[in-house]
Amino acid sequence: MCGIAGSVAGQTSARERWVRQATETMTHRGPDAGGLARFDACTLGHRRLRILDLSEAADQPMANEDASVWVAFNGEIYNHAELREELRRSGHEFRTGTDTEVLVHLYEESGTRMVQRLRGMFGFAIWDERRRTLMLARDRLGIKPLYYRRDGQELKFASEARSLAGGAGLDLPAVAGYLRLGWVPGPGTIFEGVRELEPGHLLTWEAGETTVTRWWSPRPGPATSDLRGVLKDSFSRHLVSDVPVGLFLSAGVDSAALAHLAVQAQSDLKALTVCFDSGPDEAGEAAALAGRLGLSHTEVRIKGGDVLADLERIVADMDQPTVDGVNNWVISRAARKSGLTVALSGLGGDELFGGYSTFGKVPMLAAAGRAAGMIPPSLRRRAAELAAGRATSHSVRRAAGAIAEGGWAEAYASMRGVTGADEHRRLVPWAGGGLGETWSQVKEDGLGAVTGLELHNYLPYQLLRDTDAMSMAHGLEVRVPLLDDEVVSCALGLQPGGPRGKRVLAEAVDPSLIPLTTLKKRTFTLPFDAWLHGPLQEPARAALDTLAGCGLGIEAREVDAIWSRYRSGRTHWRTVWSMVVLGLWIEGRRSAGGPPG
Questions:
Q1: What is the DSSP string of 534-594?
Q2: Which structural domain range is residue 467 located in?
Q3: How confident is the model at residue 386 (pLDDT cuts 50, 70, 90)?
């Protein structure tokens, strides 16, 4: 796990100065080593968190035997051992034990087609000095980040969007998307001119011309696949490390499945449960599970006062504003303080196996929207307004709005987003839907449509982005065995038309997990609602004032109205908290010297 940056074309000294500065600002991603590789047309930079082969010889950027191909790599390649043997048989020489070195030799053999051979999480850059070409590649689901910015023939790239922001203002469509969803929808970013290389995509640069192509889309594997065998194989690969590996453990199906796989793999990894100092939690169930399985278990209790005291730093560590980033930051800090450098997470199980309520509710809302489509739009919206005025439930009002709007995207946004369509129109009347570029047409095939929406939106641009940014703020590598390439293919193939529920996962790992699939889903959530009514009330109000007056076209009256509705119990805390985070993030950007908008 590392941070990369680079620039191609442009003035040489300015290019090197920028790359050096960009890598220095990402020291948190790679506190163990840093390096630059300089060429006439390109400069590569790297910050390293040492996981495999801890020697200096394995630092980056790294070259092939004759220094004609160079790589700056962030991530893990889980099939590197097999690829290494294959490449050795083809005559390639290896000087390190890293997966990084596999990349340069595989590129020599296969060029850009190399990505099809890789199993893992990655964002990397390869500079071909002979051909004077650059290749950027990102893993299939977007586990590892990669951003870029074009300025004429010059191209800059980095692991963090803010490294590329320069003097850029904020991107208004991205702001609108954030205010609808609670995350910035890709492939745009919060910064003008900065783009995210989408999951499963390649970017190539040659003679000043850039080309972006998709190299992977989700495809179901054979229906006869052995999910149990694929899961065990994935887990064993994710354990490979030269530093301590731990497991985030809760009482949920996903992390419990990983705990059982750990025992089956005869792993002695450390299980870690993070819980809050007040209110209900899963610590007792997690400890009991660890005890039954014989896993070493540590419980870390988080104090509310500590989180509030660190709030300014937490928001500053967000590469882009996000409604859920605080949770990830707190958990990652606890893991790093416990001595872990690598942690396994059950992230991805809900998306693949239907663990969210979206899988049941979104198709119903979409169907209701289709039925309502026979009614003129003005009447539908008027009916939705009447329903919203009478409803006491935030979710009922949001559902009524989604039915009035119609379509899969609106149905999904009503479940995933932080504002409803009407509320969003009042907040940013110039913005349209605010759903971003990735909310493309969805095949209306019931549960399968929701799987596509989850895999292309919430997973890469909220969950994985937050996990990466907040864990790397503490120099922690988080691995996600349930999102292994082979697991994804197998899971999609075994559930044609859409996921059948967590029972599929439980049965594959251990039948004793089946009772967990009937329990109500619980999440690690900090008490933001109580804080917004208590110690965060004044800072929150100040952040909302910042948001209303920042010059981004946000309607101050609607900001006040949302705050009033929240105070009277008619708006969910996530709506207000997402706006507070954006206000705090903008204020922090101002304090750091960046333009507010």
A1: TTTHHHHHHHHHHHHTSSS---HHHHHHHHHHHHTT-S-HHHHHHHHHHHHHHHHHHHTT-
A2: 227-354+458-518
A3: low
